[in-house]
Amino acid sequence: MAIDVDTLQLGPWTGGVWYSRAVEDVEPSALSEMGNMRIGGSGQLLTRPGTASYQGASALSGTPTLTSIGSFRKNASTKYTFLTAGTTLQYYNSGWSNITGSTTITAGNDNTFEWANCNGTLVLTNGVDTDAIKWTGTGNASALDDNARFTKAAHTAWFDNRLWMGNVNGATGQLWYSDIADIETWGATSFYNFGFEITAVTPTQNALVVHTVGGIFTLIPTGNNILPYHRQQRTTEGAIGGRAVVSLPDDTQLFILNDGIYKWSGGANVEKISYQLDDGWWPNVETSRLEQAHALYYPDMNEVWFFLPYGASQQKPNKLMIYNTHFNCWVGPWDGWDRNCSALINDLPHAGDYGGFLYDHASGTSDSGTAIPWFFETGAPAPYGSDVRCRWRYARTYLDGVGDWSVAIVQESSGLIGTTNNLSLRSNSFILGTSVLGTDSLGGVRMIARDTNLSGYDPQSSLKYSNAGLDQPGTFRRLHLQYTPLGRKRRKTRV
Q: What is the pTM of this model?
């Protein structure tokens, strides 16, 4: 007699990871946990990229903490990678060159800079040192001439052909603007008072967006020399810090508040988008250090990266949580390092550490020779509901054959953890360093299917995949779980 066997498909994983749901409530298109993996364009799971020192450069002298990094375009044909570290400003020219000059930079992990490209002049400010810094792309940097209108400034931006400086001289709600196309001429009344501490100043296509502790404001050009900008308060909530506000191409902004990540689309309200992280993940974020969190937008992968301090009393951003803008879901965390600043350089994500290194975060399959441990755990949806038992038979894993190594698989049902099985990630295609040229086929990456025996008589079951080997990534397309329904569970009869 034939045995009826049904199939439950898990993946593609377009729903991301759900830390705020019990494993039994996680949908087939989502995960209950993950680490050091991302979601590709078709919903496949991929091991995160590795990291490597920028251009293979050694650590900066004295191994200082990096407090800003960026890509500064002088003109259409000239672009520089720069950083601030310790007491120095440097740029890369076949090695790091110190261009600090006579400017003063106070060392300190929290003395992080914001910067703006003002039509070919780089301007940096950190809210600590007396003068903002300017660099024209030649020679050394120098102090910005502000006509004695202000000294210290915490925030800066370039918008409407003007330089803007916010939270100045202890006047936390004050925002100054320069003359048009002249970053060193400042009118005596060229400022706005917002009545709240300014936390971020971010240009968009049509407006300068000013975040304060009392909400989000916009400054929109009027074309009137007497009243050049129309100021309007949009919301009653604004970003907690200036380095973790990200503007998307449609001018939507994502930013951090104490209880999670929010989205503002230009209206009167902000929308929380991090419900997937509630309960199971976000409560472990060290909210007292969120002003040091930082973020970047990586358009090639439809990702917004948030570097966050995770763990009780954690002082440094040590976890990376990612919002996928294509699927509107969360991925992460990624970990294995501490990072103090981040930016796109040559269209790729980079970050600076606390020991003198700028890192390329899209490089290879290891962290500078250190293995990347990765894992993911599926949800445990019940195919016929929680009252119907299933006889779990085997899991068919569809994955890319990428190398001669394996992945561990553990089944969990009703809280019971089963035995560990191993699946090979090797295909029949040519594998550099393993296959023999002239004998094996040059087929590139090939999707393969691997079967793993399952066991148990439970309504639902989850699977955890993991690997901790050096240079051993994985790519997973979907899973097919084979089972036989056995009927409803027997209920105890009350006496």
A: 0.94
Q: Is the peptide bond before 381 cis (omega within 30 degrees of 0)?
A: no
Whole-number Cα distances in Å, 346 to 20, 46, 81, 151, 364? 36, 23, 9, 33, 16
Give me the sign of the Cα torsion angle 446, 409, 40, 321: negative
Per DSSP, the three-state class of 395 is: strand
- Would you state the pLDDT for residue 1? 44
Q: Is the peptide bond before 349 cis (omega within 30 degrees of 0)?
A: no
pLDDT of amino acid 436:
39
Q: Which tokens belong to 78?
A: 């000239």
- Residue whose token pair is 């090797």: 426
Predicted local distance difference test score (pLDDT) of residue 494: 52
Tell the residue number behind the tokens 């020219």, with chain if given.
93
Q: Is 246 in contact with 296 (CB distance < 8 Å)?
A: yes
Domains located in the chain, CATH noted: 6-48+375-488 (2.60.120.260), 52-372 (2.130.10.10)
Q: What pLDDT is stored for residue 439 in this prediction?
A: 36
Q: What tens digit of pLDDT does each residue of 270-286 get? A: 999 999 999 999 999 99
Predicted confidence at residue 445, as pLDDT, reads: 58
Nearest-CA neighbor of 66 among 83, 45, 42?
A: 83
**Rg for the chain (alpha carbons), in Å?**
26
Segments of the chain scoring below 70 in pLDDT: 1-3, 428-445, 488-495
Q: Which two tokens stand for residue 48?
A: 């995160």
The answer to whether residues 297 and 202 touch, using CB atoms and an 8 Å cutoff, is no
Nearest to 243 by CA among 193, 297, 195: 297
Q: Give Cα 238 distance to the centre of its chain.
A: 20
Alpha carbon distance 230, 220 (integer Å): 5
